[in-house]
Amino acid sequence: MNTTELDQKITGLANHADAWTKLSIERRIQYLRDTLKGTVAVAHEQVAAAVEAKGVEPGSSQAAEDYLAGPVVQARTIRLLMESLEQIKKHGQVRIKKKRIKTRPDGQVTVQVFPTDTADALLFGGFSATIWQQPEVTVDTLNENIAELYRQAPPEGRVALVLGAGNVASIGPLDVIHKLFVEGQVVLLKMNPVNDYLGPFIEKAFSSLIKDGYVALAYGAADVGEYLCQHAGIHEIHITGSDRTHDAIVYGVGAQGAERKAKNDPRTDKRITSELGNVSPVIIMPGSWTESELRFQAENVATQMTNNGGFNCNAAKVLIMHDEWSQRREFMDMLKAVLASLPQRPAYYPGAEQRYDNFVGSHAESEPIGERTEGVLPWTLIPNLDAKNTGDMCFTQESFCGVTAVTSLGGADAAEFLGRAVTFCNDVLWGTLNASIVLHPRTEKRFSEALENAIAELKYGSVAVNHWPGLCYGFGSTAWGAFPGHTMDDIQSGIGAVHNTYLFDKPQKTVLRGPFVVNPKPPWFVTHRNTQGVALKMMAMEASPSLWRVPGIAMQALKG
């Protein structure tokens, strides 16, 4: 570890921190524009490097995930943030149309943030997303709770450390963007050793910010991270990783760390924000589904289980079904068939095999779908878990590999079942990052009040109806983070939210809604046969947005 070099990088950032806070909004917009161009310029090389590192077939739908979750999401989020800053430059604030602002019966304010424009509406027909503001925000005070950085005098310059994630290419860069343009801090990005091959591409994409002293990158193992976290020149830290990593930073490790945590005696007074994973539930409402509907939702759930090899903080980890749903077995058989049809992937993320063995070894009823070979883990279901066994590791620990548990709850009807499922999610499952509810339109029509109550009561930062909450990460205009209220000694899924390109200061949760069945098949589905074609067209759209590009994207999607 070269501490001299690390010290020099921190000093360089500190020397530019005040200048960053005083920078004109025009110059900030130009930096975003440069970074957007840089993101697009390195996209193909970056994805090729990721595909090789993860061991998936180039050009496949699995490889194309690294376009959608990498440069496409990164470029889209930067573009939307740039549009918000353009509004602040022109109008002094982010303008929101009145028709997008609603007040719930309990007084809570919600703002529709997706679709953001006509292209979104055409490409994602039937999808919508709202950000629910924290309860203290009212319609009258909404503008006072948007873009705080741009409503105040330039704050004192601060240096933030971003500890990058090892699984998804866009996480680290977008955390840097958030710190820079939403919180006003210069940033040292510490690359995760799992994907530090991305560093050169990030350096190229962020070259203007790096050259001018507002961003720097650091590489190395845990000892480098520890040194940087404890460095006096670092004022704030943002972590994407596990709660164990968070606690090691805040309290230390071993017996002394455990004692500090028990006393809530942190060894650092730095402000720390974080996104730390989740045991993500999928609540499946009972109903009468056709075979094609069963197939669609089986592919939907399989996508949530297997995207990126299951190494996602928003991967489906617990399926919750009604114990008397007549189509429960039929759905599970369909899900197993879909999983069996998918190619197996190398378990590229460190510790995956040990975690897999811990979960499967503790559950004799585990059902692997496929064979286990060297370095490759089968998709695996752990069925029939007793929901009363609240201490089961499937409910209290994130497996972070291709393992998903299945449990069931009772209820006189779908509404009672849903209420019990919400309580189970809130009170039993670990984490508050994201949850989803799947229900047929007939069921939704009959139990609409129960659905609205469930969405309101679920204490998760993102709640998705009928689709993968991972879309809330990808849309950019939606806030992404844990449900507010965690403390350092009970961190769960973390503190704070990122993305959120409308710049809301106090988002509580994102609520995404989509059709029960989508035709053509969504390109993010792992069963889509032309994800690569769609991803390349979407990359071109983000590079140069135009309604004329919509038909080309649609044509590629039809090939799925």
Summarize the structure.
By secondary structure, this protein is an alpha/beta fold. It has helices at residues 3-21, 25-54, 61-91, 118-123, 171-181, 199-205, 207-211, 222-229, 243-251, 254-263, 291-306, 328-341, 352-361, 393-396, 414-427, 441-446, 448-457, 470-474, 531-543, 550-557; strands spanning 101-103, 109-114, 128-133, 159-163, 186-190, 215-218, 236-240, 271-275, 280-284, 316-322, 367-369, 379-385, 403-409, 434-438, 462-465, 479-481, 497-499, 507-513.
| Global structural class | alpha/beta
Principal-axes shape call: globular
Helix content bin = 40-55%
The top-level CATH class of the largest domain is: Alpha Beta
Radius of gyration of CA atoms, rounded to a whole number: 23 Å
Largest sheet: 11 strands, mixed
Q: Please tell me the overall pLDDT.
A: 97
Gap between N and C termini = 48 Å
CATH topology of the largest domain: Aldehyde Dehydrogenase, Chain A, domain 2
Separate helix tally: 20
- CATH architecture descriptor text of the largest domain: 3-Layer(aba) Sandwich
Q: What is the count of β-strands?
A: 18
Strand content: 15-25%
CATH superfamily of the largest domain: Aldehyde Dehydrogenase, Chain A, domain 2
